[in-house]
Specification:
Elements: H1 4-8, E1 13-17, H2 23-32, E2 36-40, H3 44-52, H4 62-70, E3 74-76, E4 87-90, H5 105-114, E5 123-126, H6 134-147, E6 156-159, E7 178-182, H7 185-196, E8 202-205, H8 208-239, H9 243-250, H10 274-284, H11 290-316, E9 325-329, H12 344-354, E10 358-362, H13 386-390, E11 394-397, H14 406-412, E12 416-418, E13 433-435
Parallel strand pairs: 1-2, 1-4, 2-3, 4-5, 5-6, 7-8, 9-10, 9-11, 11-12, 12-13
Antiparallel strand pairs: 6-7
Keywords: NAD, Oxidoreductase
Domain UDP-glucose/GDP-mannose dehydrogenase C-terminal: 327-425
Protein name: Nucleotide sugar dehydrogenase
Length: 436
């Protein structure tokens, strides 16, 4: 039976269901704080990697995994071991389907898997981003049906949205404040104690629904503001004004302004997806979400605008995009990570191929394009040699990894289309550079 005392004394066993970009750092953090940790994942390769002390996520070191394994952390694909854990932190994907509708199959599927093995007194915390009501209206009924137990009576249930920023050295799992919500006093008490035992700060709210809404609002806020700056970019580009210069100048205002930055589209698991979860739920209450949907439309159209910029830049050099060779630099959705989730680079490849271009890519963290739910490109990363670079009609910078030499890139390229302002400090050959 899980108790606050057991959490504080670190005798409680922490189970993490889903050992990906969210679950693995969470499991490591609890192991580092002295808890016994069991990871659960249907991917047996992850269990094997952790047992061998090898990382499968670029920004998490093998040494960190090895240290956690020495402290007793393990990972298994055997869900019959669910009863060994006192706490189950569920960290599974919540994507959109092809019609931009929430796909909760990972949540319901996981609930069906763990439900038969739940024991009385366990605490289950959902961390996956979703619309208000998911924990109580979607996950709870499945857990109760499969276990024969009742939430908030036989087992405890809470929601705490993940707040991960991969490869951010300033903000980690441990020092990012953790919002926690539950629909019973005891479930909330245990969940808050759980996070306070390993993280710097827990922020309790009145319900699971309030915690779910918090995460959706955070990412809708970012998505709307990124859409605004992307729209400003398009307007200023038509006027011949550098949007990056304008953002830099506006950022000197010490109040009333927060800088957001444009790009070739939105990537990552949260910002391109979470706002649509809110619009989906809002329809249940017959409330239109025009603002959020417009922002999504603007951000979704960015890759097409970028491809038009490439086409126009080639046209000015008396070349057609159809038949041209284009090298995309950067596949990951943000710099210095190997995370491909919702990366706009995949959409850029699709659009360029549709226009008749021949496309290759370079990414130091992704030697091969991984298969996704929507895309399956059989491509491998091209080495950045002078001969390779110069053989392309256009080089498109989609992700501004720090370990790419942009001076070298521009020097040997015929044309560089820069969507990330990666070439801002380059003095030579600026006539080759087009910002997009």
């Amino acid at each position: 039976m899980l108790t606050v005392e057991g959490i504080e004394k670190k005798t409680a066993v922490i189970g993490v269901v889903g050992m990906g970009y969210v679950g693995l750092p969470l499991a490591l953090t609890y192991a580092e704080e002295g808890f016994k940790v069991i990871g659960y994942d249907i991917d047996k390769k992850k269990a094997s990697s952790i047992k061998a002390g090898k990382t499968y996520i670029k920004h998490i070191s093998s040494e960190r995994i090895q240290d956690a394994v020495k402290k007793g952390m393990e990972c298994t694909a055997d869900f019959t071991r669910i009863p060994e854990a006192d706490v189950l932190l569920v960290c599974v994907p919540t994507p959109l389907d092809d019609h931009l509708q929430p796909d909760l199959s990972f949540i319901t599927g996981t609930a069906e898997q763990i439900g038969p093995y739940l024991k009385k007194g366990q605490l289950i915390v959902l961390e996956s981003s979703s619309f208000p009501g998911t924990t109580e209206e979607i996950m709870r009924p499945v857990l109760e049906e499969k276990s024969g137990l009742t939430a908030h009576k036989d087992f405890h249930l809470a929601y705490s949205p993940e707040r991960e920023d991969p490869n951010n050295p300033r903000y980690t799992t441990k020092n990012i404040p953790k919002v926690v919500g539950a629909n019973s006093e005891k479930s909330l008490e245990l969940a808050v104690a759980l996070y306070e035992a390993a993280l710097d700060e827990a922020v309790p709210v009145s319900s699971a629904e309030a915690a779910e809404a918090t995460k959706i609002f955070e990412n809708a806020f970012r998505g709307v503001n990124i859409a605004l700056v992307n729209e400003i970019k398009v307007i200023l580009d038509a006027m011949g004004i550098d949007v990056w210069e304008v953002i830099r100048a506006a950022s000197t205002k010490p109040f009333g302004f927060m800088p957001f930055y444009p790009g070739p589209g939105l990537g990552g698991h949260c910002i391109p997806i979470d706002p649509f979860y809110l619009t989906y739920k809002a329809r249940e209450f017959e409330i239109p979400t025009r603002f959020i949907e417009l922002a999504g439309e603007i951000n979704t159209n960015m890759p097409r605008w970028v491809v038009d910029k490439v086409m126009n830049a080639l046209n000015e050099r008396k070349k057609a995009l159809n038949g041209s060779r284009v090298l995309i630099v950067g596949l990951a959705y943000k710099k210095n990570v190997d995370d491909m989730r919702e990366s706009p680079s995949l959409r850029l490849i699709e659009l360029l191929l549709e226009k008749g271009a021949s496309v290759d890519y370079h990414d130091p963290y992704l030697p091969k394009v991984p298969r996704t739910r929507r895309y399956n490109y059989d491509m491998t990363s091209v080495e950045l040699t002078p001969e390779n670079i110069s053989s392309y009609d256009a080089v498109l910078i989609a992700t501004d990894h720090d370990n790419v030499d942009y001076d070298y890139l521009v020097k040997h390229a015929q044309l560089v289309v820069d969507t990330r302002n990666a070439t801002k400090d380059i003095k030579e050959d600026r006539d080759k550079i087009v910002k997009a």
